[in-house]
Every structure is written in structure tokens, then in C-alpha cells.
Amino acid sequence: MTAERVRAADLPVAWIMMLGLIVAIGPLSIDMYLPALPSMADDFEVSTAFMANSVPAYFFGLVFGQLFYGPFSDRVGRVKPLYIGMSLYVIASIVCAMTSNEYILFAGRTLQALGACVGAVVTRAAIRDRLTAKQTAKAFSIMILVMGLAPILAPSLGALFLQFFDWHSIFWFLAAFGVLNLLLTKFFFFETLTEENRNVRPAKEVLSQYWSLLKDPSFNYPAIGGGLLMGAMFVYISSASELIMDTYGVSATHFGWLFGMNAAGFVALTQLNQWLTNRFRILSILRFGAMMQVISAGVLFVVGILLGTDAWLPLVLSCIFFCIAGLGLTQPNASAIALAFQKHRAGMASALQGSLMFSVGIFGGLLLNLFPVNPVLKIGIAMFALMSLGCFLIWKIDRNLNLEDTD
């Protein structure tokens, strides 16, 4: 089916859901091993907080991997990068499964990310190749319905593995999931970038093209603003084990359920977003979601100041829930706006947007280590700071931006 025919037809839901399964490897890789961090720390004879540095190590790989796959996929198409990235992911997962050294694990996690990030870059770009801006927002919502099952189920699945096996088994499972993605690419993913739409500018101009994107207000406000809002979730991911399991003494099994509740809220609001995009402007929905997130983060910040670790756990979790669930209204719409005017460099735009998100995740992880305060206040400071700046940038987007002008 050609791009022009899809624009006039109903959304290709089955294809979009398949893309969601491919990109699910990212959140699955981040979240599935979180319940194992305390036991991994015991095996490596380090603290849980030290072992949690494997999360920023993963984000580091995501940042630089996406910056490579973006221009590469704009030049050679969407299929070849998927084969390369997923093959690297499988190899890196096997390294993590077999290692007995924490630094090799950190390096393996970075390599995992360098492979896994291709899914996010290529799927976002492929959707932009085929669909209009409003259809893109709906498509991202559908895709999140599938990939959103990963963070809901992953911690519980990881805890289940720990009941019967050790933490190494989690990485063997991830290697198998990478093989599944290779099979999906082989049999169900087709090329969406036609020869005439490929970016044939010299490779040496990549940096200048990225700089041009960053200066484009139709891209930079939604991409950076959305990245800051999404990055606050990665702050939560980095600190969740320490906060919930170490500070409040929640078991690995119950941690999985609590973590999954936040992801479920995220997925639920992405589905509400499909309905809202038929009735309201995408920018209006994006701004509402950003306000919802920053207010929730502000309440968490105040709770951390006033009560610290004496705060009632359900209150802390409620604040975090609305911060994460609000992403269901901000991420599909911020992505749709950021990619709307980037027809010939959709891969680069997708890559830069993703890299910005995970750069914030790395920065947020550093923020967590800067404040010698209680864990509740620590996460409150980091999330409120990032979400406030993200919300400010979202409100800087031109309210007269006409997405119907995009091709």
C-alpha cells in the first residue's frame, strides 16, 4: 500500500501494532530487570544504588545509538538498520547473561541499548513516512497500547523469573525477544521510505542537519519539551527500586504490580488521546497533559519537603502515578508535532527526539546523585525541575501552528 493511499484510508492498525511489538523491546529491556537489582547487587557485592547505575548506562547507549540510526535510515531505508540493531541487541543480551563482572554488565547494557534503540527510531519514522499528522498522533497511541504492555508486565515477569531462576535468566529471555524482533522484521516489516524521499546529502553534513533541526521551532519546542517530560519518567525508573523496595520495604513481586500500575495509567491515557484528537486540537491536549504532569510533580516535591520518608506510601505513589500517566497525553502529541514538518529527514528527527529524551534521563540520574536528601524529596526535586521546564517549552509552541499544512 502506498503512502498516498494510506492517507485517505483507515489507519493500518495491524501494521501499527506490529511496530509496537518491535519497539516494546526498549521498555522491556529497561523494566524487566529492575526487581532483580537488589539480588544482582548482592551477587556483585555492591549496593543497590550502585547497581542502579546500569540504568543510566543503558540510556547512554540509547542517546548515541539513535543519533546514528536516524540519518542512516534516512539514507538506506528503514529495514537494514533494524537488522543491524537487533543483531547487536541479541549479542549484547547474551554478554549480560553470561557475565560475572558488574562493569562488563554496564558495558553490555550500553551495547544492548545501542541495538534496541533502532526500533524506536525506525518505527516513528516509518509511521511519519505513511501517515498525516493527526493520523500519526493516533498511530502513536495505538502503538503505545502494544508497547505499553511491556512496562506493565515486565517488572512482574522479572519477579516471576526470580522465583524460579536467577537474574541471568532475564537477559536470556531478552536475547530471545531480540530474535523475535528479527523474525518480525523479516516477515512483516516492509520498506516505507521510497527512493525519491531518501536523504542523499553527504554524510559529513549530518551534524549541520541536526543543528538545523534544533533551530527549527516547529521541531525544537515539542521535541525538547516532550523529551523533558518523558525524561522525568526515566528519573523514576532509575530510583524506583531504591525508593519502593529499599526505603519502603516492598517485595519484588509487589514492586512489579506497583510499577505496572503506572504503566497502565500511561497506556490508558494514550487510548483516551485517540478519542480526544477527534474533538480537540493536538496542541491543546498536549498542553493539558503537561500541566497535569507538572502539578503532580509539584505535589510530590512538597510531600518530600514536609514529610520525607514518613510520607504515606499511597500518597507518594499517587503523585508518581499522575506524573507517569500524563505522558499518555503528552508523548503521542509532542511526537506528532515534532515530526509533522520533517518529511525528508523523519529518521533524523525521530532519532534526535529520542536522544533528547534519554539525555534528560541521564541528566536526571545525575540529579538524583547530587542531592543528599531523603529518597522521596530526591525524586520530587528531579521530576518537578524537569517537568516544569518541559511544560514551559510546550507552552512556547506557536498556538497557530497548522498541522494540516504538512505533507
TrEMBL record:
Residues 15-399 form the Major facilitator superfamily (MFS) profile domain. Keywords: Cell inner membrane, Cell membrane, Membrane, Transmembrane, Transmembrane helix, Transport. InterPro entries: Efflux_drug-R_Bcr/CmlA, MFS, MFS_dom, MFS_trans_sf. It is found in: Cell inner membrane; Cell membrane. The chain crosses the membrane at residues 12-30, 50-69, 81-100, 106-127, 139-164, 170-189, 219-237, 257-276, 288-306, 312-330, 351-371, 377-395. Its main location: membrane. It is a multi-pass membrane protein. Belongs to the major facilitator superfamily. Bcr/CmlA family. NCBIfam families: efflux_Bcr_CflA. This is Bcr/CflA family efflux transporter.
